[in-house]
Write a structure and sequence with these properties.
Length: 336
């Protein structure tokens, strides 16, 4: 009887601890869940776009000790009691034991059912039979969704100016033409273009341009570009799409935000992005506005039909910018 009473007391204390834990988690991190160390690693692989851009995920990782001392758990339980009760707590995602660190974070959208399986199957299709991507039900859902979104998107004007960078080349004397799209013959597969497919990539700022061409030590030549035309933009960053679980899931997962660079022609992580470019184009979009994978604050545009936009492009200026100048600019504008 006595031991049953002790067990009941222990259970009550565990309940109290776990309730207070949740309350403090919410009030400190604005999150109703957390990831154990193993699940945090998996989270980063599944959602590289979030890891890249939402600094909360990176900042939130905390040790049990710091959490205990920084919250009201400290007033309600001795550290010894907390540590001992915490042994019974399991990771809400894998059910495993929580070691020293955990990462409070709450996804800001609902993940579509089966998404992780779908993403794996899509990755396998992209690697083995990329032309058959649309045979996958999730790819069909994405196709339908982008077409549906297109019906509600009006023509909009573009930010002015935008920027396009070239690597410096001491032997080359630059002119405006260098900031237009390259010739088809030399175009390799890119994030939103097939090989030989002329599209036109721009960034909203110089720092992003610099990161997008892999931060050359010798600095870059940057063109100021104006496209004074109203176009139909598939804006992945549109606030109105923040509740759209399909768009959010593809955009922040490895489907569109893979950090992989690929080697030579082996770029399976670009198959789904190129698929989305094809779908957007078929749905009547002129351009896609998307978050930079290389620079966490950066935003890029890709114009999908270069011939259509070409007569309206004006390269108003171009100049050399050193790496030091760009990094100083980046640090000045950091919002954190
Ligand atoms: Zn876990």
């Amino acid at each position: 009887m006595k031991s049953q009473k002790m067990n009941e007391d222990l259970n009550d204390r565990f309940e109290e601890m776990s309730m207070l834990f949740d309350i403090e988690l919410e009030s400190w991190f604005n999150a109703d869940t957390f990831y154990c160390e193993g699940c945090a690693e998996k989270f980063i692989r599944t959602w590289p776009g979030i890891y890249n851009r939402d600094l909360d995920f990176q900042r939130n990782t905390i040790s049990l000790g710091s959490f205990y001392h920084g919250t009201r758990l400290r007033d309600a339980f001795t550290e010894e009691e907390f540590n001992s009760l915490f042994q019974q707590m399991s990771c809400p995602h894998c059910g495993g034991h929580i070691t020293e660190f955990f990462s409070p974070y709450e996804l800001k959208f609902d993940v579509p059912a089966r998404f992780e399986t779908d993403a794996k199957e899509i990755a396998a299709l992209a690697e083995q039979t990329p032309f058959l991507l649309l045979s996958h039900p999730f790819a069909q859902t994405v196709f339908d969704e982008i077409h549906r979104i297109s019906k509600h998107v009006p023509l909009t004007s573009l930010p002015t100016p935008m920027f396009r960078a070239r690597k410096c080349s001491p032997k080359h004397s630059f002119s405006g033409i260098d900031f237009m799209a390259p010739n088809r013959e030399i175009i390799v597969e890119g994030r939103y273009n097939h090989a030989g497919n002329q599209v036109y990539y721009l960034a909203e700022d110089i720092v992003t341009c610099f990161y997008e061409i892999r931060m050359p030590n010798e600095g870059i030549m940057v063109g100021r570009i104006e496209v004074p035309e109203s176009v139909k933009v598939f804006d992945l960053m549109d606030e109105q799409l923040e509740e759209n679980s399909i768009i959010q899931a593809i955009q922040w997962s490895s489907l569109l935000s893979s950090p992989a660079e690929g080697e030579g022609w082996h770029k399976p992580h670009y198959v789904f992005t190129r698929f989305v470019a094809d779908v957007a184009r078929s749905a009547g979009f002129d351009a896609i506005r998307y978050p930079s994978v290389r620079f966490q604050e950066g935003i890029n545009y890709v114009f999908l039909d270069y011939e259509k936009v070409k007569p309206r492009i004006s390269v108003s200026d171009f100049r050399y910018v050193s790496k030091e100048e760009i990094l100083a600019e980046r640090d000045k504008n950091r919002r954190f």
